[in-house]
Amino acid sequence: MSRWTHRKTGRSDRQLASAFFRNATGFHESAEAAVQRFPEMTRYFLAIAIELSLKAYLLHRGISDDWNRVHIRHDLIKALSCARRAGLNAPPDGLVQIAALLSPYYQTRRIADMPTAVVDAVSWADASQTVRQIIDIVRDSIGEGGSSQAAANTGLSR
Predict the structure, then answer these.
(1) Bigger pLDDT: 38 vs 144
(2) How does DSSP assign 53-114, residue by residue?
(3) Domain residues for 136?
(4) Which of 2, 67, 116, 120 has its CA 20 to 30 A from that of 155?
(5) Interacting residues of 114 by C-beta distance below 8 A, sequence separation 6+
(6) Residue 118 lies in a domain
(7) Assigned domain for 158 exists
(8) Half-sphere exposure of 136 (CA within 13 A, CB side)
């Protein structure tokens, strides 16, 4: 076992991974609904969707929720790095950039403080599609059935 993991096996991790995944899809759907009228909420919802989808992947791979909470917290870059080390292959193009853009503000609960020039330089509709891709990759990796939309409608919350 490597130093960076504190593994916890058993059914509860897979159940929690499934709950995290469903919540990720729900936040992504909220981001898509908000993209035109509420850009700040879109950014916030996308950050949550990235975090939850990557943590769902890690939980499914046997990384404990306690470890994620202590070591990753709300750091999207660290979550992506840990997911890659745990076996996540080929995250979608653009995910690293979106995570790098959102992470410093998301970690400190300051998404509203993102500079206007930075916010305006990003197509948040395209960013939403990139987040959809990572959700789909995680869905396939952890064996969640159906589409992201169907998973979002199942309703188990964290």
Answers:
(1) 38
(2) HHHHHHHHTTB-HHHIIIIITT-HHHHHHHHHHTT---PPTTHHHHHHHHHHHHHTT-GGGS
(3) 11-152
(4) 67
(5) 43, 101, 105
(6) yes
(7) no
(8) 11
pLDDT digits (tens, 9 = 90+) for 76-85: 999 999 999 9
Whether 1 is in a domain gets the answer no
| Least confident residue range of 2-11, 12-21, 22-31 | 2-11
pLDDT tens digits for range 107-146: 999 999 999 999 999 999 999 999 999 999 999 999 986 5
For residues 154 and 23, is the Cβ–Cβ distance under 8 A? no
d(CA 88, CA 86) in angstroms, rounded, equals 6
CATH of the domain at 115: 1.20.120
Domain count for the chain: 1
